[in-house]
Specification:
Blueprint lengths: L9 H15 L6 H7 L1 H16 L5 H15 L2 E2 L4 E2 L4 E3 L5 E2 L4 E2 L4 E3 L3 E3 L11 E2 L4 E2 L4 E3 L3 E2 L4 E2 L4 E2 L7 E4 L4 E4 L1
Parallel strand pairs: 1-4, 2-5, 3-6, 4-7, 5-8, 6-9, 7-10, 8-11, 9-12, 10-13, 12-14
Antiparallel strand pairs: 14-15
């Protein structure tokens, strides 16, 4: 399971994030451009703050308020309870929604309009678990307490309602999958 906190220091983690964006986005011209102009990266940075607040007793309301401010600034909504792995990159992030009990592994690429949403009205694991080295195409909807295996790709606008085995391609509405 991914950890919201790595063993890496603050500045090393920022450098890793900038390098990840530069590696994942062929349009990235410089780290300065990424630092100031990539809203998906800003959303992840603000999520780290809100997640740290969420984990402390008595600070859940401030965590939610900061997360809503982050949503206003970036167009990306990440619940403070969600857990994101390392080197997650949100490219063209407008409209991305990541729910409270979602977990996202390491080296995941998320495009705009992706939803990691819940289907159960209360309690327990309600949102998807996304493995490592996964690509989530634009507009993909992953709903409920499902597992997306390591090495998967979810196609644009796919609606995923069931577990997807590792190294698969999930496409369609509802999504079907085949080996990648």
């Amino acid at each position: 399971m991914p950890s919201a906190r790595g063993n890496t220091g603050f500045f090393a983690r920022l450098r890793e994030d900038l390098a990840t964006a530069q590696r994942r986005d062929p349009a990235a011209r410089s780290k300065v451009e990424i630092l100031f102009g990539y809203s998906g990266l800003h959303a992840i940075w603000l999520h780290r703050l809100t997640h740290a607040l969420w984990q402390r007793d008595g600070l859940r309301l401030p965590a939610r308020l900061v997360s809503q401010f982050a949503r206003f600034l970036t167009g990306v909504e990440i619940h403070p309870g969600a857990v994101l792995g390392r080197r997650v990159f949100i490219d063209h992030g407008m409209g991305v929604v990541i729910g409270e009990t979602a977990t996202v592994g390491d080296d995941v690429l998320i495009y705009h309009g992706v939803t990691l949403g819940g289907t159960a009205p209360k309690g327990g694991q309600r949102h998807p678990h996304v493995g490592n080295n996964v690509l989530l195409g634009a507009g993909a909807k992953l709903l409920g307490p499902i597992h997306i295996g390591d090495g998967c790709a979810v196609g644009a606008n796919a609606v995923v309602l069931v577990d997807v085995p590792p190294n698969s391609l999930a496409i369609g509405v509802p999504a079907t999958f085949r080996p990648r």
